[in-house]
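Q: Structure for this?
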Amino acid sequence: MAKWGMVIDLDKCTGCQACTTACAMENNRLPGENWQDVLYYVEGKFPNVSMKWFPRPCFHCENPSCVSVCPTKATYKDPDGGFVLIDWNKCIGCKYCQVACPYGVRFYTDERAPIQPDIRTVFPSDEGRQWNPPYKGPQDDPSRGIGIQPHGVVSKCTFCYHKVSKAPKGVADLDEDIPELKEYVPGCVRVCPPKARFFGDLDNPASYVNKLIADKRGTRLKDETGNKPQVYYLSGGAASAIPGLRSMKDEG
Amino acid sequence: MMLCNGIDIAYQLFSVSSPASLSATMPSLASGQRLRPDVDLHYLSDACQAWVQRVGLCESCRRACPVDALLWVDERLALLPDCLSCGRCIPVCPMGALELPGLVQRLGAQEDVLRVDCRRVPLALRAGVSVPCLGALDAAALLELAASGQPIELLDRGWCAECPANGGERSQAFPAQAALQQASDLLSQRGWPAASHPRRVSLPLPLEVALPMPSAREASPCMTRRGFFGRLAKPIREVATQHEETAPPPRPPVAAPPHASLARARLLAALDALPMKGLGDDKTVTSPSVPSALTVELQIGPECRNHQGCTKVCPTGALQPYQDHVDGFEVGGVRFNMRLCLDCGLCLRHCPEQSLVRNTSDAKTSEGWVVLTRHVNRRCVDCGGSYSVAAGQVDSGRCDPCEKSRRLAREMFHQFFAAQS
């Protein structure tokens, strides 16, 4: 019984969006509807401007608010692995989870496509899916929200359930540098060029992710909501060493 | 015959009473399919599943079945050959998903009194109208019969207590009593004098003359030796082949559109067809209206953010989204048809803003599609998607998800970087 978690080191992240691209390819996402993206944020006035970026996957919370609001119990917490998944056979697309999620990582793609022209009309699907992409991943499990999204349902990051769930039992960390484990590593972690992402078992005291969280003061986002995300951010505050930033005033 | 009427009525309801300016999304009403080839009971699986998916397994029909012939297998309804085709499951279904063609049979000449009889009565003694079991009649069916203007008598043959269609813990002294009471109440509100209401008439017959209830199990041929061993081996064969071939991935179901509740639509339509009686000439009631016991009035408060969740959780499509153009603006929102509402309360519970209110006051109820909310659609400056703003709400220029992402990024910035400077 692992509890998978992710650690993202903001000091290493270059905001290159390789994770976003990998996720889009792995999970057949529609353009612009990525389960994983990098948020950019700009604050300050010239010349004291600072831009920061934050990769944002689904946090697979320990106590997810999306699960408690779902009227049809379509979204659920998998007790084996701690994934938060959606059963597309049960989802009615009411989007209550989208409203309830404090992190905004749920996607309902039946509305106007953010990127035009609409690729759904270029590769239409005849089996009730959003589209029929020219390249498709082999995995398809609607009861866990894996595969090409059907119409009228909400989708979200699965922590690459189709890969991680096949990992050998008892393994502490899924590291792309270990050859025998690399096939089980989530797409975004595997491709990260500066190796800013780490994936491992939070319940295993010997795992490297636990060590990172302890050594570098791993922080969970919006802890006041009580959702207890399983994704931790590391920040040594490298940005604060830049003098321009220290003089910046909050004008938010 | 009656139940087919229900479908027609629901169609009319959608095509006639929706204003032309509102683009109507018609709920599709597929015709029913038999649950078993040897039993006449038809099942509208889409209507049933719309309820099961949203409310959960409701068990009404299963509990109403006197011989426990209905059961749920993997959230699908299944029928055992024990079915007596008595129709007791039909009136209890909230969605009207079960139907029995030829439930009400009329034969013989028209009489001045419409007598409804049990089909176990031998043909020679049977009254003009017959049903498999009087318990298969609901108030809507009684009102449909009453619309002819003839007095209605349900014949109590005195054997209901011993009848297998009235078996087990669900047995009642007279199975149509509840429907009679409801029909009587509704007719009183229409001004029908008590003497013209459908009533129960005791006309006992000895149990010996009763015809047996037909059962598919008795009709089916007994199992052959080959069939017996074939059935034994089948599960083994399935298990053995499971490992060899990997099953193709299950196709995700297309989310079914909400379905009209035939049961309630039928009852209200039957009520509409009844003429008003005994009101004299000074009554103010000019057009028949829905009695207060059956009205539901919903209101949506100013908190509404047009998430449209209520239209998705509604199992009957009583709440629907609409799109319209007003003065060059794209407007949209939620509209409501009281005739389709089952008063299940799902929309009240599952509104993220808690903005739906069920109005219990005796205000004048509105017929047809009532527009509950009107939002102006805008384009989000970040994602280009459409989002809506109600009157009196602050417009940030962004849709809710984009606004949420922005707030999150600002929060992260201050948590990780700005606070240290």
